[in-house]
Amino acid sequence: MRSIWRTLDQRLLRDVAAVAAGAAVSGASFGAISVAAGLPWWLPVVMSLLVFAGGSQFMAVGIVAAGGSPAAAVLAGLVLNARHLPFGLAVGDVLGRGLVARLVGSHLLIDETVAFALAQRDPARARAAYWSCGVALFGAWNASVVAGALAGQAIGDPAAFGLDAAFPAALLALTLPALKDRKTRHAALLGSAVALATTPFLPAGLPVLLALGGLVVAFSGKAVRA
Amino acid sequence: MTLTAVLVLAVGTYAFRLAGPLLRDRLALPAKARELMSMSATVLLVALVATSSLMKGQGFAGWALPVGVLVGGLAAWRKAPFVVVVLLAAATTAGLRLLGA
């Protein structure tokens, strides 16, 4: 029994390490891109510590670098990060009961930690997965942003290494078990279709939120209540 | 990008994050609603996978990216270890880009 636990936990840690390694490379490129865009080295570092949401950080810096206003960058980042609210509703229990656990754990609520937690069967493992993934990614992301900001443009384009494929592939692998459920699968497919169809017309972040419309599948084909 | 902008983005993002766990406590939710919430997280994650592997900005990302993600996805479906899935996806995309796809 004990050895099963150990093996499982080692496997979990290895999976977390793989995701953290990917995050470290994108963190380094985020630091480098920010400095190349003319920001002082400490600003991407502070941003990574306090915002800790890679997608919105890249987008905000990108908007400002392209001549947009900081207000537009903040607004776009907030729209992109609005998905954390439904994420929190879904995995809120995993964080722990105490106030400190909630306050700290909420800051670690990111796509990867949610996916890791949802991929576990029992609550204890979900909590271990959430926290180990959160702490590892927070450390890897922030350390690499510092390194990237200091190293500057020496770091190349992460797309050349195919790292932009690593993130969706990791999320896909983590969500596959949940997709065994027919209703969830249909909702996810419909939602993805909505998100893809609306991406050309809407600001980033909104299409993913609209994917929640796919949940109508969950209400269909059910006996009418009341 | 200014420090003020960073702080506003940080506070707003944290508010979104904290709202879920706190709201969940206040509401005594029926089992059906809880099930719906974990379903909605999966729907959001899959939509994120779809958009981030097919689109770059508001246009098509090119073939290298979705093919890499698909190869990773197939490996995961065939029960390949997670590390292999991630590496295979990145290597496929990088390789296709090297070939000019």
UniProtKB/TrEMBL annotation, chain A:
InterPro entries for this protein: Brnchd-chn_aa_trnsp_permease
Entry keywords, A to Z: Cell membrane, Membrane, Transmembrane, Transmembrane helix, Transport
UniProt GO BP: L-valine transmembrane transport
Membrane topology: Multi-pass membrane protein
Pfam hit, one: AzlC
Residue ranges of the TM segments: 12-38, 58-80, 128-152, 158-176, 188-219
Compartments where located: Cell membrane
GO cellular component annotations of the record: plasma membrane
Family in the record: Belongs to the AzlC family.
Protein name: 4-azaleucine resistance transporter AzlC
Native source organism of the sequence: Saccharothrix tamanrassetensis
Lineage: Bacteria, Bacillati, Actinomycetota, Actinomycetes, Pseudonocardiales
TrEMBL record, chain B:
PROSITE patterns: RHODANESE_3 (PS50206)
Listed Pfam families: AzlD
Keywords carried by this UniProt record: Membrane, Transmembrane, Transmembrane helix
InterPro entries tied to this protein: Brnchd-chn_aa_trnsp_AzlD, Rhodanese-like_dom
Claim: Transmembrane helix is one of the keywords in the record: yes
Domain Rhodanese positions: 47-86
TM region positions: 39-55, 60-77, 83-100
Protein name (Swiss-Prot/TrEMBL): Branched-subunit amino acid transport protein
